[in-house]
Specification:
The chain contains 6 helices and no strands.
């Protein structure tokens, strides 16, 4: 009987978080649609947006999974305190974000050049790297909060944090791209 209860609990946790993720993704898509003029105004931005969204989901999903494992193993204490292990994970995800964002900016520029789209490499790099880092910092702290909170509530962070942060990452990244485009112009 306990196994059945465990399965039911995991199923309910997974179902609820995935249902929430569906609505968050709809919101992110709707917000992306409102950015249509900004995407057209900056050559190559449309090429770069989807890889940036994918980047955030991949990095934060993996970060959330690492935190869930570290919480279960006791490597990271279940409190909101920046331990050495947690700092290493946060810095690692931000360094990876910076490197991948720069690569995405360069690849968007190269794709634009190859397809005849007028692109400004400096603008693309600034937008990519600033939006990537801004969303990375926001999401790193949100990921820590969600993982620790769910763990303390007796909910498996692996069921909640990874899918939720990958999805929330899309919404926050779209917002950060939009803000940076408005500032950079």
């Amino acid at each position: 009987m306990p196994r059945r209860k465990e399965f039911s609990s995991m199923f309910i946790q997974g179902f609820l978080v995935l249902a929430a993720c569906t609505f968050i993704e709809l919101g992110a898509g709707t917000f992306l649609k409102t950015m249509e003029d900004a995407l057209r105004a900056v050559g190559g931005l449309a090429i770069m947006t989807l890889p940036l969204l994918d980047l955030r989901g991949n990095i934060n999903g993996a970060f959330a999974s690492r935190l869930g494992s570290a919480l279960h193993l006791g490597v990271i204490p279940a409190r909101l305190k920046m331990t050495r292990e947690l700092k290493v994970n946060v810095v690692s995800s931000l360094v990876l974000t910076l490197m991948a964002s720069a690569t995405i900016g360069i690849m968007a520029w190269a794709t634009g050049v190859l397809t005849g789209v007028e692109v400004d490499i400096l603008r693309l790099l600034i937008i990519s790297m600033v939006a990537g880092m801004l969303s990375g910092v926001i999401l790193a702290f949100l990921t820590i909060g969600v993982a620790v909170y769910s763990y303390l509530r007796g909910i498996d962070p692996d069921n909640i944090a990874a899918p939720l942060m990958a999805t929330v990452g899309d919404f926050i990244t779209v917002f950060c791209i939009y803000i940076v485009v408005l500032i950079v112009g």
